[in-house]
Amino acid sequence: MTHSTRKITVQDQEYRYALRNRYENGKNFVSLKIFEARRRDGGCEFRFRTWDDPVSGSPLMVGVDLTRKTDEGVERWNMHHPARVRDLLLYALEQGWNGRHAQIFSDGVAVLNRLGWEADCLRPEFRETERREPEVGRLISATFGSKPDNLEQMTFGHRNVVYRADVEGRSFIVRTNADRSVMRRTADNMTDLRELGIPVPRIVAYDIEGTDYPFSYIILEEISGRDLRYELPDMTEEQMTAVAEKVVSFQRSVRRIPRGEGYGWRPIGEKGLFDSWQQLIALDREDNFRQSGDIVGAELMSKLDRRLELLHPYFAEVEPICFLDDLTIKNVIVEKGDLRGVVDFDVVCYGDPLYFIALTQTAILCDIGEERLFYAEELCRAMELDERQRRIVDVYSALFVGSFLEYGRENEDEAAEQRLLSYMGKWLE
Question: Among 127, 123, 98, which residue's Cα sits nearest to residue 111?
């Protein structure tokens, strides 16, 4: 672990920087902090979360070979080398850091990707996946009595490592996680939702304790179709209306679940982590704009804060109603315009059901474009929102813009960024 600061000069300006790293549960966390030499406030920080080698330690601290995207050439990356610090410092300056305000780049690996390196191999999940696939193949063989005809890791799943397995003409989804707490109530949640008439996948097998494998898992029959985000561009308005009405009917069904004790994202029946809806909104306001506040600018941020403040009496009246927060343009499975089922129920949310419409509206704008916002309008219509509630959906959507802007920057999607900023202004009028 390095604590002392070092000097570096970039663009005739002198800076000081410090490197720190720590090990935790097979992962390594590296922090690079940079300050103007004459200041100790207003620094920028790059945070890297990587795998940790049991012998050599942190790949970024001892050196690791990374491939350039432009020509597939390989170079050694070592955070102790001043040239690498210079690259990151120049990136921070390009992103608007001026030495006088604090800025955190929470996903340093994503920054390396944007700088032109194939850096995802540094993520802990990369090594975990390499080791996990043979174990998943063994699990499939033990469950079905034959090896999978095809086994592939899916690109979705930000909390779980997910696979699609074909076995004797049938397809299954295998959700796995080394953190056994993530899916500890998933099967129970799905059972409760199925009893309410919600079309969730059939569970084939599950083990939340990780008894025989180094991960917990749940095997599900695959629902034919794709996430709504991939189908929406080609759907007719009639098809969008039909899907929206079905999704809203699911939300009405889960209202029959008893009100929660507390607010936020929890398995069905468990006490929420927040004592009020206002607390959850305040946390999302902080988290969503931690990285993107500078992109939005002071004027729009001030408008958002004023609108949220005006809604404090409304937030105080929100009851902890159960709703399916992630039935947006993902987890809603559609085939040829028809809804086939819904997926991903590690948790539900207790609070304001308008939140899921707002998240859907912002996701459509970011990932697809404004021409498909008709689907969000149909959700509002099916929910029978009044004028005030419709305005609240827009404020919530503006609140979600921050996290989508960060995603857009990571993927260098300037068109999405401009759409989000434009509509954030409209939503806050």
Answer: 123
Residue 175 phi, psi dihedral angles, 5° rounding: -100, 125
Which of 282, 288, 301, 302 lies closest to 366 in space, CA to CA? 288
For strands 321-323 and 264-266, give the pairing: unpaired
Which residues contact residue 121 at a Cβ distance below 8 angstroms, ignoring those fewer than 6 apart? 66
Treating both helix axes as pointing N-terminal to C-terminal, what angle do 374-382 and 387-410 enclose, rounded to 10 degrees? 140
Residue 79 main-chain phi, psi, to 5 deg? -65, -15
CB under 8 A, 24+ apart: contacts of 22-29: 23/52, 23/57, 23/58, 26/51, 26/52, 26/124, 27/51, 27/52, 27/124, 28/52, 28/57, 28/58, 28/59, 28/60, 28/61
Fill in the amino acid letter for 77: W
Q: Give the residues across from 375 on adjacent strands.
A: none
C-alpha distance across the termini of the chain, in Å: 49
Structure tokens at 291: 């990285």
Residue 212 in 3-state DSSP? coil
Which residue stretches of 224-353 are H helix?
228-231, 237-254, 277-288, 293-296, 298-310, 312-317
Phi, psi for residue 142 in degrees, rounded to 5: -70, -35
Q: How far apart are CA 240 and CA 223, in angstroms?
A: 19
pLDDT attached to residue 24: 84
Question: Rounded to 5 degrees, what are φ and ψ at 268?
Answer: -55, 130
Residue numbers in the chain where pLDDT is lower than 70: 1-3, 128-130, 155-158, 410-411
Q: Where are the beta strands (DSSP E) in 103-210?
A: 103-105, 117-118, 150-153, 161-167, 170-177, 203-207
Radius of gyration of the chain (CA): 23
At 129 the pLDDT is 66
Centre a 10 Å sphere on the Cβ of residue 237 and count the other Cβ atoms it contains. 10
Answer whether 68's CB lies under 8 Å from 117's CB: yes
Residue 55 burial by CB count (10 A; 0-12/13-18/19+): exposed, middle or buried?
Answer: exposed
Beta bridge partners of 75: 66
